[in-house]
Amino acid sequence: MIRPSRAAVLGGVLLLGLALSGCGFGPDPETVRAQARVVFDDLVGEMAAADPAVLRAVEPAAEAEQPCGEGGQGSRRALVATATLSITAEAEAGEETMAALAATLDPETWDRIRPAAEAAEQHAWASPDGVVVTVTFDDPVLVTAVFTPCQD
Questions:
Q1: Exposure of 150 by Cβ count < 10 A (0-12 exposed, 13-18 middle, 19+ buried)?
Q2: DSSP state, 3?
Q3: What is the DSSP letter of 7?
Q4: 20: Cβ–Cβ under 8 A, 6 or more apart, which residues?
Q5: From CA 61, how far away is CA 76, in angstroms rounded?
Q6: Looking at the record's lineage, which domain of life comes first (predicted)?
Q7: pLDDT class of 26 with cuts at 50, 70, 90
Q8: pLDDT per residue over 104-152, tens digit each?
Q9: Residue 15 is inside which H or E element, if any?
């Protein structure tokens, strides 16, 4: 007769307990979405606080669901805000504004990631929970976006 090891039995009990309690692996999707909203609101607040002689017309778009994953079977939330650089702003004002937005992201939480190849003036970060932040400057428009991880 084969006796299961004590570790295997304890592991099975733990998995059964997680299954019965409704807990899964990874962060709760609603918590991640709420945290993404807080980050987005902080970024939009930073944009709105910019000198109007530099950045004008900060406009957050309505929160949107986007398809993602294999065959578009999943969805993620996209939070996007745009602003326009004033025509009277100094040439380096766009880069300075991008740096101010980046400074709102805690480097202990946010890792710099490679931006999209087609977006020359884009900076991007990812959190351990899979939230992605992008800041793109396409003179004269500054676009800030926060994406939640893909959920099935």
A1: middle
A2: P
A3: H
A4: none
A5: 15
A6: Bacteria
A7: low
A8: 999 999 999 988 777 778 999 999 999 999 999 888 999 999 999 998 8
A9: helix 6-21
